[in-house]
Design brief:
The complex is a heterodimer. Chain A is mostly helical. Chain A has helices at about 1-25, 30-50, 55-80, 90-100, 105-135, 140-155, 165-170, 180-195, 200-210, 215-220, 225-250, 260-270, 280-300, 310-335, and strands spanning about 175, 180. The chains are: A mainly alpha, B mainly alpha.
């Protein structure tokens, strides 16, 4: 009798351990799918082109992805909160336009205006968060409206693409340390930032608010403060993306920002960040951004029309979101 | 009467705003109220209004349709490529394109309703896939000629009234009947208010969701074909502006983006407000950039008026809102 009791207990423990392991795998299914897709893309790319598995290629690809990565970092924070930020498109346009019209030749002027652009991004984002909390408005509509306003201001400052930035500013992307280009260092910095940020009080509170706003509020989290911080950070990263973008295009563009709004959401979703809030990791988003950028390279080496690129990214987006939805359902089934 | 005003407060406000805007515009540019100018305003508003019809249904149901730009663009390109400048093929091309639009909508709805994909992602994916397919199909070049019948439908007149305005009126009647009189409308509001409650009350939530996206695909395809008649060609990117304007028209018309409230009659006012604004700004010597700033401000103001904070302190007292 006692033997069978012990046996049964052991069986239950084993079963629990197994289902716990399965649960963890399911939780990470979207992220693992993203890793698999990236591996498949890089392998295919590498079998058609020589020199793919070199540091030079990593430098190039990271440089091509970095604007999207920065924008998507802010978007990831907002998505974890359970919101969405469409205004980053306007902020990116506005940032490039201010830089291209105000940057002087001296480092002092560039530093001053860079800080000003970052401050504007932070401020506008905080304003988004404030409106969402105080007026109880939907993030989608508030940020749609601020996107339009920021984009309009950018067009007033610089009606068409143009302006210029100092020559040395454009060199930034090519600067290397130990053979590794600056964008790759930025990528590492982003990961370090995330490792630190997700463990901070703010990071934990953002994620908790995203998973369950009511229980976060009941545990003493100030939702208005979280909103201001979340959207403020998103605006800050968007203005950072704008600054990086000016090192690549060497000019300002009042319309370029819209190319990053939905791709930033797509990169996060491909990387396993849930649109329902509370679930995801920046590493996934960065892999998502790599995937979206590398599809372009892949289409090029496969010698098919570059017009297939959007089709491929749409299909990849659908595949990853289906993986997320399976994971989401499994999580719900376990919770209930 | 009071109950009527209370229920439709936001829609009435949208119309009041439209009238004020019309008067202000007339003040700044005296020619604005001329018959020809009003006609061209209504024609432009009709395109926004038709596209926003499907978007209204989707938003009332608690979703959003981001695939409108390239459903519209695909419909325009396919119609122009198949017909050229000939009228006869329209007999089968128009139904074909409409069915195509409905099918894209069906795919969107199926992904949302049956596979649990968030609407933003589902419709974003179909949008980029359609964009790529159309680029591959056309190699990036526009389709330069469109049938005369389409031109007549878009810019022609019957007894001084633009044909497209008549089409818009018919569609408005159909939408109003569907929302206010049909079982579909009751199901839709129930679904948008709370999908769970609707499901338990026996509302066919999945079917209703799919139907909203099918409607959206249909109206986007129709608007795409008509728009070629206005611009005289089908070019790539012609649908891009309609994503923002369709959502903005719905929001200005008083619908909550969370679903469960709003009416197409509000969206009609929203479409007119957006179009009148485009006419007001040249009169004030303002640029396109200023127009975008004004659009943003108008959206912020209208959704603020609609928010719980301004709708009396109801939400706060019931303690249902967020802190």
């Amino acid at each position: 009798m006692t033997v069978s009791m012990a046996e049964r207990r052991m069986e239950t423990a084993q079963h629990e351990a197994r289902s716990d392991w399965r649960g963890k795998m399911l939780d990470r299914a979207p992220f693992l799918v993203a890793c698999l897709m990236l591996t498949a893309i890089v392998t295919t790319y590498g079998s058609y082109q020589t020199g793919v598995f070199t540091l030079d290629e990593l430098n190039l690809d990271t440089s091509a992805s970095m604007t999207l990565m920065l924008a998507a970092t802010g978007q990831t924070i907002v998505l974890l909160r359970g919101g969405i930020d469409l205004s980053i498109g306007g902020m990116i346009s506005l940032g490039t336009v201010i830089a291209a019209t105000q940057f002087g030749e001296t480092p002092g002027s560039v530093a001053f205006w860079s800080l000003a652009i970052l401050a504007i991004g932070l401020g506008v984002g905080a304003l988004n968060g404030m409106m969402i909390s105080l007026l109880r408005l939907q993030p989608f509509l508030v940020t749609l409206a601020t996107w339009s306003i920021l984009n309009g201001i950018a067009m007033i400052i610089l009606p068409t693409d143009g302006g210029s930035v100092p020559g040395w500013w454009v060199e930034f992307g090519y600067m290397q340390l130990l053979g590794i280009a600056s964008p790759v260092w930025m990528l590492l910095l982003l990961l370090v930032f995330w490792t630190w940020f997700r463990a901070t009080q703010l990071g934990v509170a953002i994620k908790a608010t995203g998973s369950n706003e009511k229980s976060a509020f009941l545990s003493g989290v100030s939702i208005s403060r979280i909103n201001v911080a979340t959207y403020g950070l998103s605006g800050l990263f968007a203005s950072g993306a704008a600054l990086f973008l000016t090192t690549q295009i060497g000019a300002g563009s009042p319309t370029i920002g819209k190319d990053y709004i939905l791709p930033s959401v797509a990169a996060a979703v491909i990387g396993g960040v849930s649109l329902f809030g509370g679930r995801g990791h920046l590493a996934g988003t960065l892999i998502g951004a790599f995937i979206l950028t590398l599809i372009g390279n892949l289409v090029f080496v496969l010698k098919v029309s570059s017009y297939w690129q959007p089709v491929a990214s749409g299909v990849i987006l659908l595949l990853s979101v289906l993986a997320s939805s399976v994971a989401e359902r499994a999580a719900k089934a376990r919770a209930s | 009467m009071n109950a009527f005003v209370g229920r439709n407060r936001l829609i009435l406000l949208a119309y009041a705003g439209m009238v004020v805007l019309l008067l202000v515009t007339a003040l700044f540019s005296p020619g604005f109220l001329s018959a020809s100018n009003l006609r061209s305003t209504v024609v432009l508003a009709a395109f926004v209004g038709i596209v926003a019809l499907g978007q209204t249904f989707v938003i009332i149901g608690g979703g959003i349709d981001l695939s409108i730009p390239w459903v519209l663009n695909s419909a325009a390109i396919v119609m122009a490529l198949l017909c050229g400048s000939q009228d006869a093929p329209l007999m089968w091309v128009m139904p074909l394109v409409l069915v195509g639009g409905a099918m894209v909508g069906f795919v969107n709805g199926a992904g949302v309703a049956w596979f649990g994909v968030p609407p933003i992602i589902m419709t974003l994916a179909t949008n980029v896939i359609l964009q790529g397919l159309i680029l591959v199909l056309t190699g990036g070049s526009p389709a330069p000629s469109v049938p005369g019948v389409i031109k007549f439908l878009a810019v022609g007149r019957v007894g001084g009234i633009p044909v497209i305005a008549l089409i818009w009126i018919v569609l408005t009647l159909i939408a109003t009947l569907l929302l206010s009189k049909a079982a579909f409308g009751r199901h839709l509001y129930a679904l948008g208010t709370s999908a769970t409650v609707a499901e338990f009350s026996g509302v066919p939530t999945a079917r209703t969701t799919v139907l909203t996206y099918v409607f959206s695909g249909l109206t986007a395809a129709l608007a795409g074909m008509l728009l070629t008649g206005y611009s005289g060609q089908a070019y790539l990117g012609m649908g891009d502006a309609y994503l923002f304007t369709s959502v903005a028209a719905v929001a200005i018309g008083g619908a909550s983006i969370l679903g469960g409230s709003g009416h197409y009659l509000g969206t009609v006012a929203g479409a007119l407000v957006l179009t009148i604004l485009t006419g007001l700004l040249p009169a004030l010597n303002l640029s396109n950039g200023a127009l975008l700033v004004v659009y943003g401000a108008v959206i912020l103001i209208t959704v603020s008026i609609g928010s719980e904070v301004f709708a009396g302190l109801g939400g706060r007292l019931r303690g249902k809102g967020r802190a």
